[in-house]
Amino acid sequence: MTKRIVILGGGTGGTLTANRLRKAISPHEAEIVVIDQNNQHIYQPGLLFIPFGMATLEEIVRPRSRQLHSGIEFRETAIDHVDIQADQVYLSDGSSLGYDVLIIGTGAVLQPEETEGLVGPGWMKNVFTFYDPEGAVALHQALDAFTGGRVAVNVVDMPIKCPVAPLEFCFLADWYFHERGIRDKVDLIYVTPLDGAFTKPVASKALGQLLSQKSIEVITEYNTGQVDEEKGRLISYDGREVPYDIAVMIPAHGGSPYIGRSEGLGDELNFLPTDKHTLQTTVKPNIFALGDAAGVPTSKAGSVSHFEGEIIVENVTRFLSGKSLDASFDGHSNCFIESGFHKALLIDFDYDTEPLPGHYPTEVGMPLLKESHLNHLGKLMFQSFYWHSLLPGRDIPGIGSSMPTHGKHFEALEHS
Q1: Which domains does the chain have, with CATH numbers?
Q2: Dihedral angle computed from the Cα positions of residues 389, 392, 394 and 398, in that order, rounded to the nearest 10 degrees
Q3: β-pair partners for 226
Q4: Which pLDDT score is estimated for 240?
Q5: DSSP three-state, residue 300
Q6: Is residue 375 within 8 Å of residue 395, measured between CB atoms?
Q7: I want to staple 227 with a disulfide (CB 3.0 to 4.6 A). Which of 117, 275, 286, 308 is the partner?
Q8: Residue 180: other Cβ atoms inside 10 A
Q9: Residues near 244 by beta carbon (within 8 Å), at least 6 away in sequence
Q10: 107-153, pLDDT tens digit by residue?
C-alpha cells in the first residue's frame, strides 16, 4: 500500500528534504506532498544585502513549486491545524489531508507585536527589520537617504534565524558608510541580550574584537522591553535607554501560529520538541521536524537544514521500514559572516564544539574565524550553490552532515 509523506513548509528544509526523499523512495512506495501558504521561495541570506543595494528582491525570489522534483505534489494553502491523534492536516481552504509521516519545516516567524511600541508610528519610517522582504526594501530607501546620526542594531530576544546576520549587518553598515564618505558622521551601536558578540567564548572574543576595530559600540545583556518611537529610544526592562535615529530591529521569533492551534504538537513558543540526534519529535513517532521549526540546541540557519535533511531522509526511510533510527546528527552548522570591504569569516561548529580557528573542511580548506577575501567569494557563490545544488538535494563531495574535526585548532579553547 502506498504511503503518504506530508511536508509542511516549502522553505529550505522542506524543499531539499522532499527532493532527497523523492530520490530515495519510489512513487510506488510513497507519495510526497509539500504544503506552503505561498509560492514564493526566498533566498533568505540575500535579505541582508538588499539594504545596502547589493541585491534586489527580484534576484532572491523564485517559485517554490519550480524547486521541487517531478513526482512531488505542491499545494499552495495555509495550514489551520494538525490533529496528531488522527494523523490529519487541516488546511485553510477547508480540505484535510491524512499522512503516514509528517515532516514539519515551517520555520520561525517574526513577532514584532510582542515588543511594546515596536509596531508604532515609526515602523517602516525609521524603525525597520531586514529579516523580511518589505523591511529590507524599506531599509534600503532609508539608508540611501541617511546623512548621519545613530544607527542601533537591536536583537530583541533569542532564538532568532541566522544569529550572525545582525553582526553582518553592523559590519556591512560600517563598510557602506565608509564608501559613502560619511562613516565619521555615523554612530553604529550593536545592542544584544547576550553577554558578548556571540554565544560561544572563542567566537565571541574574535567577533567582539572585530566590532571594536570597526568602532562599533556593543551594548550587552540588554533586554528590550519597549521601543519609544516618538522619542527615538530603545528601553530595556532594567531601565537603560539607547537613543537612535534609525533602529534596525531583529524582533522576537516564534514558531508558526498553526502549531499553537494544534493540540499537543508544540512548546510554548510554537517550536517542535525534537530529539536532537534523530530529529524525530517527542510528540509522536511519525512526526519529524527540521530547520527553524525544530526545538534542537543549534543555530536556526540554512546550513543546519541542509545537514538535518540528510538525517531526516534516512530516518523517514527507516521508520517506514520499521527499522531503528539513525541517531547520528551532531548539530552541525556553518556559515559565512560578511565583514565588509570584500572580506568574510567562516564558522563551523556542532552541539559540543564551538566555532574555532583553523580551516574547513580540511587543513587546506577555507580559513575559519578569520577574515579573508576567499570567504567573501564563498558567500557570494553560495547563492548559486543554494539554487542548483542544495535545494535539489544533491550530495556535496567531501561535505557531510557530521562536523569535520580535521583542520580545527582545538588548543584555542585553552586560551578562551
Answers
A1: 3-107+256-320 (3.50.50.60), 117-252 (3.50.50.60), 333-415 (no CATH)
A2: 40
A3: 116, 235
A4: 97
A5: strand
A6: no
A7: 117
A8: 14
A9: 126, 150, 151, 152, 189, 232, 233, 234
A10: 999 999 999 999 999 999 999 999 999 999 999 999 999 999 999 99
With 0.90 as the threshold, say if the pTM is over it: yes
User: How far apart are the C-alpha atoms of 396 and 404, rounded to whole Å?
Assistant: 14
Q: Which residues does 270 contact at the CB level (< 8 Å), separation at least 6? A: 254, 255, 256, 257, 259, 260
Cell of 227: 521601543
Beta strand 366-368 pairing with 246-250 = unpaired
Identity (one letter) of the amino acid at 270? N
How far is it, in rounded angstroms, from Cα 309 to Cα 117?
Answer: 38
Q: What is the largest CA-CA distance in the chain?
A: 69
Q: In this structure, are residues 9 and 294 in contact, taking their beta carbons and an 8 Å threshold?
A: no
* DSSP one-letter code for 108: E
Name the pLDDT band for 416 (thresholds 50, 70, 90): low
pLDDT in tens, 54-103: 999 999 999 999 999 999 999 999 999 999 999 999 999 999 999 999 99
**pLDDT given for residue 222 in this prediction:** 98
Question: How many other C-beta atoms lie within 10 A of the C-beta of residue 372?
Answer: 17
Supply angle C-alpha 358, 364, 367, rounded to 5.
40
For residues 334, 345, 188 and 164, what is the CA-based torsion angle, rounded to 10 degrees? 0
Mean pLDDT of 349-367: 93
Convert the pLDDT of each residue in 155-196 to its tens digit. Answer: 999 999 999 999 999 999 999 999 999 999 999 999 999 999
List the 96-98 sheet strands across, edge first: 79-83, 88-91, 96-98
